[in-house]
Amino acid sequence: MKFLIKYILPVIMVFGFTKGYAQQTMQFSEYMFNGMSVNPAYAGYKEDWTLNLSGRLQWTGVDGAPKTSTLSVDGVTDGYKKNVGIGFLVTNDRLGPENNSAAYINYAYRIRLDAADTKRLCFGIAAGGIEYTINGSLFNAADITDGSIQSGAQSNFTPDFRAGAYYYSPFFYMGASVLNLLPQTNLNPNSAIVPQVRTLYVTTGFMVPISPAISWKPAVMFKEDFKGPTNMDVSSFFLIGKVLWLGAAYSSSVTLWNKPNLQSDLNKNDAFTGMIDISVNSRIRVGYAYDIVTSQLPGFQNGSHEVSISIGFGRRNGRILSPRYF
Fold first, then answer.
1. Count of structural domains, the chain
2. How far apart (Å, rounded) are the C-alpha atoms in residues 65 and 69?
3. pLDDT digits (tens, 9 = 90+) for 245-290
């Protein structure tokens, strides 16, 4: 616990007073099975080289609704010391005429905290770039003479960095990270391109054995951009027979402090999610999530679908001393 106080809490405080800029970054319902998507310090957590693929269709039935996909691969560079984790992450997010693609190289330094090597404190950074494109010809404008809607496509490439910290033991984890560290200063003031957001993530969860065959895994994640509402995602999973994951999650905005720029009557409800994941074998996991919107949008869409798959690859040397539940 003293390591949490000494290292992770200062990181959270530093990130917590970082200025935000715009809307929050994209997010998957099953982020808990691909932690590197929100925290570069997660790279190498499973130690074995692991490939993760995720695809999400949000608000099906709505024209131009978000379509999001990600690919990542990560592992440790040394199967014995396991002090360095590296990873590669590619994301794409499409919303109507907007398309946002990004790629990052992740590096994590993993500090061993006990002789049995069941606890580690990890610090991570990621470097990459974001390509943002908006196609004005795809807008369905009420006024075709509106000068703010430019014809043709505009694009902008911006280098970017991420940073984070992550602590884990066999039955507990906690992490803090900040994404989109570099503000976009090279945009034309008249451009329709929306600046990337600087967003803080704080995650934590634990594993509780209920019986020899069933374990319970609750978790919570906070997302904060210091401009829009603070988002909280609470999830609960049951692991049955070390093969089947059954879970549910609820997302909502929460009020942690007063934000004068926000409307006072905003609806805080967001979505309820049901999730099922199956470990086909010790190397392959397949998951599915379905979101039901609980805001005022339900009558205009048919829910959101998300599919994910993880594939682990064995190493020639070394071994994992404790299970990887996070």
1. 1
2. 13
3. 999 999 988 777 677 676 565 555 578 999 999 999 888 999 999 9
Q: Mean pLDDT lowest for which of 160-164, 233-237, 284-288, 321-325?
A: 321-325
**Rounded Cα distance, 16 and 98, in Å:** 29
Domain membership of residue 283 (yes or no) is yes
Residue 222, Ramachandran bin (φ over 0: left; ψ between -120 and 50: alpha; else beta): beta
- Hey, is 183 helix, strand or coil? coil
318 is a domain residue: no
Dump the DSSP string for 113-161. -STTS--EEEEEEEEEEEEEEEEGGG---SSTT-TTS-SSEEEEEEEEE
Q: Which of 84, 74, 8 is nearest to 35 (CA)?
A: 74
**Kindly report the CA angle at 155 between 151 and 159, in degrees rounded to 5?**
165
Helix then strand then coil, % of the chain, to nearest 5 = 10, 50, 40
d(CA 28, CA 138): 26
Alpha-carbon radius of gyration of the chain? 20
Within a domain: 120 = yes
DSSP state of 197: P
Please name the residues in contact with 190: beta carbons below 8 A apart, sequence gap of 6 or more: none
CB 272 within 8 A of CB 295: no
How far apart are alpha carbons 12 and 176 in whole angstroms?
6
Question: What is the Cα–Cα distance from 292 to 312, expressed in whole angstroms?
Answer: 31
Structural domain contains residue 240: yes
CATH code of the domain containing 289: 2.40.160.40
CA distances from 28 to 67, 148, 260, 306 (A): 11, 32, 29, 8
Tell me the residue range of the domain where 217 lies: 2-313
In sequence order, what are the beta bridge partners of 109?
A: 84, 123
Q: Which residue has the tokens 């404790």?
A: 322
Of 53, 32, 54, 34, nearest in space to 43 by CA: 34
